[in-house]
Amino acid sequence: MDPEGFSGPKQKIVKPLTQEALAAFKAAQERTGVIYISRIPPGMRPAKVRHLMSAYGEIGRVYLQQEDAKRAYLRRKYTSTKKPHFTEGWVEFKDKKIARSVAEMLNAQPIGGKKGTRWRDDVWTMKYLPKFKWNMLTEQVAHEAAIHSAKLRVELSQSRQEQQEYLKNVELARVLDKRVARKKEKGEEMELKPTERSRKRGNEEERGEGRKRKKGGEAEQFPLNSVLGSVF
To answer: How is residue 118 annotated by DSSP?
Structure first.
């Protein structure tokens, strides 16, 4: 997960869990509920979302997804806002009953607050995710990050190949220009020899024309034989 979009309890020293502690931890995880916020108001950060949601119940973890890198670059280039913006988010409540009631109560409702505050007139768009746990979110984020990095590797490999092919063609053109210049100085004409690829293409075209002629001859002979058979 991107640390910019994460807001949760401070990290503690991890100690081995006993069987009782492990059972209690699993039971606590089963009681949690996650709310999905489909739109984060511009400029709102994870700490602010945590502060607003904590007024309705005990909060576990909060994660906001940052906007696309290309979109963020264009926004920073053409606007005065340089801070990261977030597009969607997930909020974990310790009690799933409270999470469900909060989502039903706040969905499509204004954020509110004191008069003149930045997000007073913005509207919440949220939904309770039944049977959704926080580990599912972390797995999804890791999977999307792996897909994104794989796409980047493929694009970099393709661009590298295209660049090498371009440089190869540039070098070949430079060598040919030098040869033409030398021939002109000597008063000779430059003759380009056919490459192996053009030879293969020519042979394939000749074979195709031969097949067409053969099929045409067979087609002409077939109706003639049928006519003669019907006569005699």
So the answer is: T
